[in-house]
Design a protein that fits this description.
Distance between the termini: 70 Å
Helix content: 55-70%
Shape: globular
Oligomer: single chain
Strand content: under 5%
Strand order of the largest sheet: 2-3-4-1-5
Structural class: mainly alpha
Length: about 900
C-alpha cells in the first residue's frame, strides 16, 4: 500500500492544509525531535492524540516530509479497524513501502515464518532496523494505532527500548492513549485540542479567499474546532454560498446530503465499502455487490469525483475515516449486521483466510451460526501462539454462539479452556470448564475436560484440587491417551507432596502409559513430572536423566535440562547447551534466567544480575511474570552480597507484593527464605531462624531445590538464632543430599561445611575446602575458606592468613563486596600480628566510567567500535537481549543517549588510559 494518504494530498490543492492551521507549536516540537534524532542524540517517540479529523495525520505527514528532507529512511504505515487479526499488519503496512523500503519482502517473509514467537520476532525486527539505521536515521510512523493488531502493539511497546541507542524516531497517532508503556526513550505526547477561532478564520480565508463574512464564522462554530469538519463545511460553502441552507449537524447529515446526489448503484457500492473498512479492494466490494469488478467503473468514478473515495493504485480508500463512519452510520443496524455476515461468507467463498472473515463475524454472528463457530475456532488456533489474549476472546465468543444443549459445546468449550489458560486467564478458564462440567457430560468427555483443566489448576498452583480431580477422572476414563495424560498430571501434582516415592511410581506409570498410547503430550508431561520429582527429592542424576530425555523430545524444555545440570556442577555442559540454544525462539526469558543461574554459580555476580534483569524484562514484555519471585529473590541475595541492603529491601517489597497477588507454594517458600536472610542481615537472628524453620516445616518438597546451594547460610542463621536443633537438622539433610549425589563436589563440600559448623570441627572445614576446590562454585569455596580461616585464627594457626586471603580474593573477584570487606576485617587482625596490612575495596560508584561492570565495558567498547547489538552478542557469546540490558545500564551510568556519545566517551577513556582494567578491586596499601 502506498504511504500517501488522500487527505494529505489535499495539501497541494487550493483547499489549504486543514490539519496544520493553529498547530505551529506542535510542528515546532516535531521538527525539534526530527533534528535531535538526525544529530545522533538517540531514539525518540512522539505520540499525537486526538479525535477523528483533529489533524493528527496532517501533522504526521508534515513530520514525514521533514524527515525525508533530512535524509531519514521512512516507514509510514496505518492500522486499520478490520485488520486486528492479521499479525504485524499495522507495522508491515509501512515497513515494506518507501523509497527505499525499510524491509524487503524477503525480510518480512523470514519474520512471518516465526510470527508465533513474539520475542524472537521483535528481536529480529530490531536487528534489521538497527542495521538500516547504522547508515542513516530512521522514522517509523504508524497512523491510527488505536486499531493496531496485537502483535504490532507488542512490537511498538518493546522496539523503542530495544533501539534506544539507535537514531530511530517513532511517530504514532491515536484517538486515545494506546498505553504502549515500554522502557524506551521518553515519549513526547502531543494532545491536539480543538482549533481556536483565529485558526478557523485563517482556514476560511485559505479556502474562500479575502475577508470572511461573519455568517461563515457563525457557521464554523458548528465544527467544534475540528479542522476536518470545518474544511468539509467550507467546501460546501465554496460550492453553494454562505446564504444557502443551514449546514447539517456534524458530518453524518452532511455526507447524507452529498450521497443523495449519487446514483443508487454508487450509493450501494459506497455502503458496501463502508462495511469492508476504510480501505478495501475492488474485488471484495464486487463480490459483495454480486457484480464483476469490471462492471463497477462508473460507481468508482462517481465516488471519487464526489471526493468520497481515493484510489491508491492497489485499493480504494475513503478519503477520511470520518467519511466512512458517516456512510456506515447511515445504514440501519440490521442492514449493517446482514452486510457484515454476507461479507464474511463471500470472503470465505473467495478463498480468503479466517483472519479476513472473523472481524465481520464478530459484528454479525448470532447463536447457532455454525459457520461462524467454526471460523472463530480456526482463527483462534491460527493466532494463539502470537496473540493469546485475542485467541481466548475468539474461542470464548465461539462458545457463546453454541446452542446451550448442543453436543459440540464440549469440544468448543475445551478449546476455550485451552486458549484462556494459554492467555494466562486461569480463573476464567477454570470457571468456563466448571460450567461445562455442570452440564454433566458423558464420562469420557468429563475426563477430557478435567485433563485440560489440569493445566489450568497447575498454573493456579491449586495442587490439592488438581490431585482430587485427576483421581476422580481416572476412575471414569476409558480413552488410553486421556488416561496417560491424567496420570502424568497426577504425577506432577504429587511432585509437590511429601511422599516423593509414591510420586515417582506415578510418574513411571504415566510414562509407560504414554509410550503405550503413543501420545506426545502425555510423554512430555510424564518426563516433566519425573524431572520435577527428582529435583525435589534431591536426586540430581535422575533429574538430569529425565530432563535430558525431555529436552531431546521437546527442545522447549532445554532450560530445565540446563538447570538440572547446574545442580550436578556440570557447568561446562550447561555452557555448551546455552551456546547451542543460540537464537532459539523458544522461552527466551527462561533461557536467560538459566544463564543468570549459571553466572551466579560461577561467581559472576554482575553478569548474573544483568541476566536476571533481562529475564524479568522479557517476562514483563509478554505480561507473564511467572518467574518474578525467583528473579527478585536472587537479585536481593546478590544485593546483600554486595552490601546494598536498601536494594535488597526493594526486591523484598516486590516479592511480598507478588506473593500476595498470586500465592503459590513454591513462591511462598522462596519468599520466606529471603525474609530470613534479610532479617539476619539486619540483626534479627531469632526471627531469621524461625523463618528458616518455617521453610523446613511447611515446604519439605522444596527443601533441596531451595536450600541445596544455601544450606551453609541457613546453618549460620540457625546458629546465630540460637536454634541448634534446626542447625543439626539442616546439616543432616545436607549429609543425606551428599549421599544421594556422591559425584557432585558442591553437595559433598557443603555437607562437610555444614557439619563442621554444627560440630565446630576444623578437620571437616579443611575437607570442605579441599572438596570445593575441585568444584566450579567460587562463592561456596570462599565461604568455606573464610570459616576455616576464622577457626585457624582463633587457635593462632598461621595457616589462617592464606585461607582468609583466598576467601577475600574470591569474594572480591565475584563482586561480593560486603563479604570481601567482612573477611578483610578478620584478615587485618591476622596480618596485623605479622606486621602486614590489607587494602580496602573501593566503594562502588553509581555514575561514570568507573561504575561500569567488566561486561558493560566490553559491550561499550564493541558498540563504540561499530558493532550492532547482535554482532556484539556474538562476540561475547551472550544473548542480544543481555547486550540490550547492558546498554541500557551503560547509558544510565554514563548519562548518554546515543551510540555517538558512547563512542566519544570510550575513545576519551581509552585514550587517557583510564579504562585499562575491568574494575579495580582494591586500593593501594
Amino acid at each position: 500500500m502506498s504511504p500517501d494518504r488522500p487527505e494529505e494530498q489535499g495539501a497541494a490543492t487550493g483547499l489549504s492544509r486543514p490539519g496544520l492551521r493553529g498547530r505551529e507549536a506542535e510542528l515546532d516540537r516535531l521538527r525539534a525531535l526530527v533534528e535531535t534524532v538526525r544529530d545522533g542524540e538517540g531514539g525518540a517517540i512522539a505520540l499525537l492524540l486526538g479525535e477523528p479529523g483533529i489533524g493528527k495525520t496532517a501533522l504526521l505527514q508534515e513530520a514525514v516530509s521533514r524527515a525525508r528532507a533530512h535524509g531519514f529512511l521512512v516507514s509510514h504505515g496505518r492500522a486499520e479497524e478490520l485488520h486486528e487479526l492479521a499479525p504485524l499488519a499495522s507495522l508491515a503496512s509501512g515497513l515494506l513501502h518507501g523509497d527505499p523500503p525499510l524491509l524487503s519482502g524477503t525480510d518480512l517473509a523470514d519474520l512471518a515464518g516465526h510470527h508465533d514467537q513474539r520475542i524472537w520476532l521483535v528481536e529480529r525486527l530490531a536487528q534489521l532496523i538497527e542495521e538500516r539505521s547504522a547508515g542513516r536515521p530512521v522514522l517509523i510512523a504508524v497512523d491510527d494505532v488505536q486499531w493496531a493488531d496485537p502483535l504490532s502493539r507488542f512490537a511498538l511497546s518493546v522496539l523503542p527500548a530495544r533501539l534506544l541507542s539507535s537514531p530511530v524516531l517513532w511517530l504514532l497517532t491515536s484517538r486515545e492513549d494506546p498505553e504502549l508503556y515500554g522502557q524506551g526513550p521518553l515519549t513526547t505526547t502531543l494532545p491536539l485540542r480543538p482549533l481556536p477561532g483565529t485558526a478557523l478564520a485563517e482556514l476560511a480565508r485559505d479556502v474562500l479567499g479575502g475577508d470572511v463574512p461573519a455568517r461563515v464564522g457563525e457557521l464554523l462554530d458548528g465544527a467544534g474546532g475540528n479542522p476536518f469538519l470545518a474544511a468539509e463545511m467550507l467546501s460546501g460553502i465554496a460550492a453553494t454560498g454562505a446564504d444557502g441552507p443551514e449546514p447539517p449537524e456534524r458530518l453524518v447529515l452532511g455526507v447524507r446530503g452529498r450521497l443523495a446526489d449519487l446514483r443508487p448503484d454508487t450509493l450501494h457500492f459506497l455502503r458496501i465499502g463502508s462495511v469492508l473498512g476504510r480501505a478495501f479492494s475492488l474485488a471484495d466490494a464486487a463480490a459483495l455487490c454480486g457484480r464483476p469488478a469490471s462492471g463497477l467503473s462508473a460507481e468508482v468514478d462517481e465516488a471519487i469525483a464526489a471526493a468520497l473515495l481515493h484510489d491508491d493504485g492497489e485499493r480504494l480508500l475513503f478519503r477520511h475515516d470520518l467519511l466512512r463512519q458517516a456512510v456506515y452510520a447511515d445504514l440501519a443496524p440490521s442492514v449493517r449486521r446482514a452486510l457484515h455476515r454476507e461479507a464474511a461468507s463471500r470472503l470465505v467463498a473467495a478463498g480468503r483466510s479466517s483472519v479476513d472473515a472473523v472481524p465481520h463475524l464478530l459484528k454479525s454472528a448470532e447463536p447457532g451460526d455454525m459457520e461462524a463457530i467454526g471460523l472463530l475456532g480456526t482463527a483462534a488456533e491460527d493466532v494463539i501462539a502470537v496473540m493469546p489474549d485475542l485467541a481466548a476472546d475468539l474461542a470464548v465468543r465461539a462458545l457463546e454462539l453454541v446452542p446451550p444443549r448442543a453436543p459440540m459445546a464440549y469440544d468448543v468449550g475445551e478449546r476455550a479452556v485451552v486458549a484462556l489458560t494459554r492467555a494466562g486467564r486461569y480463573a476464567q478458564a477454570r470457571d468456563t470448564g466448571d460450567a461445562l462440567l455442570a452440564r454433566q457430560p458423558p464420562l469420557d468427555v468429563f475426563a477430557r475436560l478435567q485433563c485440560v483443566l489440569g493445566d489450568t489448576l497447575w498454573h493456579l498452583d491449586d495442587v490439592p484440587e488438581l490431585t482430587r480431580r485427576t483421581t476422580t477422572a481416572l476412575a471414569a476414563v476409558t480413552d488410553p491417551v486421556i488416561r496417560a495424560r491424567l496420570t502424568a498430571r497426577q504425577a506432577l501434582a504429587r511432585s509437590r507432596g511429601s511422599d516423593l516415592g509414591a510420586a515417582r511410581e506415578t510418574g513411571e506409570r504415566a510414562l509407560a502409559e504414554a509410550e503405550r498410547a503413543g501420545d506426545r503430550e502425555a510423554r512430555v508431561l510424564a518426563l516433566w513430572g519425573l524431572g520435577e520429582i527428582a529435583l525435589n527429592a534431591g536426586d540430581c542424576a535422575a533429574a538430569v536423566e529425565h530432563h535430558t530425555a525431555l529436552s531431546v523430545f521437546d527442545s522447549a524444555f532445554l532450560p530445565e535440562e540446563a538447570v538440572a545440570l547446574i545442580h550436578m556442577d556440570d557447568f561446562e555442559t550447561v555452557r555448551r547447551l546455552l551456546r547451542t540454544a543460540g537464537d532459539a525462539p523458544l522461552r527466551p526469558a527462561m533461557l536467560i534466567w538459566t544463564q543468570g543461574t549459571l553466572n551466579m554459580g560461577l561467581g559472576r555476580l554482575d553478569d548474573a544480575d544483568a541476566d536476571f534483569v533481562t529475564a524479568e524484562r522479557l517476562e514483563a514484555d509478554l505480561h507473564v511474570p511467572g518467574n518474578l519471585v525467583n528473579i527478585r529473590v536472587n537479585r536481593g541475595l546478590l544485593a546483600l552480597l554486595r552490601g546494598d541492603r536498601e536494594a535488597a529491601r526493594e526486591h523484598l517489597d516486590i516479592v511480598r507484593a507478588t506473593v500476595a497477588d498470586r500465592p503459590n507454594t513454591g513462591n511462598h517458600a522462596t519468599h520466606q527464605y529471603f525474609e530470613a536472610v534479610v532479617a539476619d542481615a539486619e540483626g534479627d537472628h531469632t526471627a531469621a531462624a524461625e523463618l528458616v524453620r518455617s521453610v523446613q516445616r511447611d515446604h519439605p518438597f522444596l527443601r533441596w531445590r531451595l536450600l541445596r546451594t544455601h544450606v551453609v547460610q541457613a546453618v549460620h542463621i540457625a546458629l546465630r538464632g540460637g536454634d541448634r536443633k534446626l542447625a543439626e537438622d539442616l546439616a543432616a539433610q545436607a549429609a543425606a543430599h551428599a549421599t544421594r549425589n556422591p559425584t557432585v563436589p558442591t553437595a559433598q563440600g557443603t555437607a562437610a561445611h555444614a557439619s563442621a559448623l554444627v560440630n565446630t570441627d576444623r578437620g571437616l572445614l579443611e575437607r570442605a575446602v579441599g572438596t570445593l576446590l575441585t568444584g566450579p562454585r567460587p562463592l561456596a569455596l570462599a565461604a568455606a575458606s573464610a570459616d576455616l580461616g576464622r577457626t585457624l585464627l582463633t587457635s593462632g594457626d598461621a595457616a589462617a592468613t592464606p585461607a582468609l586471603t583466598r576467601a577475600h580474593d574470591l569474594y572480591a573477584q565475584a563482586g561480593a563486596d560486603a563479604e570481601a570487606d567482612r573477611v578483610r576485617s578478620v584478615l587485618q587482625r591476622a596480618t596485623h600480628r605479622q606486621g602486614r596490612r590489607t587494602g580496602r575495596l573501593r566503594p562502588r560508584t553509581d555514575q561514570g566510567w568507573d561504575a561500569l561492570t567488566a561486561s558493560e565495558r566490553k559491550v561499550a567498547r564493541l558498540i563504540a567500535a561499530g558493532h550492532t547489538n547482535r554482532s556484539a552478542a556474538e562476540a561475547l557469546v551472550v544473548s542480544p537481549h543481555t547486550v540490550n540490558t547492558h546498554l541500557a545500564s551503560i547509558f544510565r551510568k554514563l548519562a548518554v543517549r546515543s551510540r555517538v556519545h558512547l563512542a566519544r566517551i570510550v575513545l576519551a577513556e581509552d585514550g587517557a588510559g583510564t579504562a585499562a582494567g575491568d574494575r579495580a578491586t582494591s586500593a593501594p596499601p
